């Protein structure tokens, strides 16, 4: 049996808003939004991995607050575990330095305005529940159009405007 590899995801919170990051690579993930983070290295704790990844990817100094319940299956052998995180006093503002080409701070009302990676949707729903104290399900996916064969527009694709980095 293959060992699971933990990918740590950060629900970075500031002023009641959640930071979303748009991936720039690899090509199959580029343009979709995720929680910043990455793979835990051998011998590293998940919390240290989170702080390291946030420094590398966003240039921020951060501290882990608490684990968000759940473990979310990614492409095998990876699983995503999520923690809430806050920026330390004196930290730089996040910048899309590595792996991302845009960042957005999302309010509770805006959380489904970005096109999250499919596998992140349940994790983000849990973050929304934990952070904003409400169940905030994503909008339903459209029924596929069969007549013309044209793919329907994705209601979660609304990346225009408000992006930083
Ligand atoms: N960081 C992060 N990765 C995610 C999320 N959802 C998701 O499917 N992934 C995938 C993308 C990648 O295949 C894998 C994490 O890889 P990564 O490229 O972010 O990790 P890393 O920074 O350690 O990268 P590397 O050293 O292997 O280049 O998990 C998410 O919300 N955050």
From TrEMBL:
Domain Nudix hydrolase as annotated: residue spans: 3-130
EC number in record: 3.6.1.55
InterPro entries on file: MutT-like, Nudix_hydrolase, NUDIX_hydrolase-like_dom_sf, NUDIX_hydrolase_CS, NUDIX_hydrolase_dom
Chaperone found in the keyword field: no
Keywords linked to the UniProt accession: DNA damage, DNA repair, DNA replication, Hydrolase, Magnesium, Metal-binding, Mutator protein
Any Pfam family matching the protein: NUDIX
Requisite cofactors: Mg(2+)
Segments of this protein annotated with the region Disordered: 138-165
Native organism: Streptomyces liliiviolaceus
A molecular function GO annotation: metal ion binding
Organism ancestry: Bacteria, Bacillati, Actinomycetota, Actinomycetes, Kitasatosporales
GO biological process: DNA repair; DNA replication
Descriptive protein name: 8-oxo-dGTP diphosphatase
Annotated SUPFAM superfamilies: Nudix (SSF55811)
Superkingdom assignment: Bacteria
Enzyme class, UniProt record, top EC level: hydrolase
PANTHER family membership: 8-OXO-DGTP DIPHOSPHATASE, NUDIX HYDROLASE FAMILY PROTEIN
CDD domains named among the record's database cross-references: NUDIX_MutT_NudA_like (cd03425)
Reaction(s) the record says it catalyses: 8-oxo-dGTP + H2O = 8-oxo-dGMP + diphosphate + H(+)
Family classification: Belongs to the Nudix hydrolase family.
Ranges of compositional bias, category Polar residues: 156-165
């Amino acid at each position: 049996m293959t060992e699971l590899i933990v990918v740590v995801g950060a629900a970075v919170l500031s002023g009641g808003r959640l930071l979303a990051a748009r991936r720039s690579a690899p090509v199959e993930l580029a343009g979709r939004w995720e929680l910043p983070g990455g793979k835990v290295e051998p011998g590293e704790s998940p919390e240290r991995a989170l702080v390291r990844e946030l420094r590398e990817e966003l240039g921020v100094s951060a501290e882990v607050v608490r684990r968000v319940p759940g473990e979310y299956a990614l492409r095998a052998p990876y699983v995503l575990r999520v923690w809430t995180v806050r920026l330390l006093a004196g930290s730089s503002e996040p910048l899309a330095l590595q792996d991302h080409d845009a960042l957005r701070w999302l309010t509770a009302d805006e959380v489904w305005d970005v096109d999250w990676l499919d596998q992140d949707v349940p994790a983000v729903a849990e973050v929304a529940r934990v952070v904003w104290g409400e169940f905030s399900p994503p909008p339903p996916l459209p029924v596929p159009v069969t007549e013309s064969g044209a793919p329907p527009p994705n209601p979660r694709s609304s990346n225009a405007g408000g992006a930083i980095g």
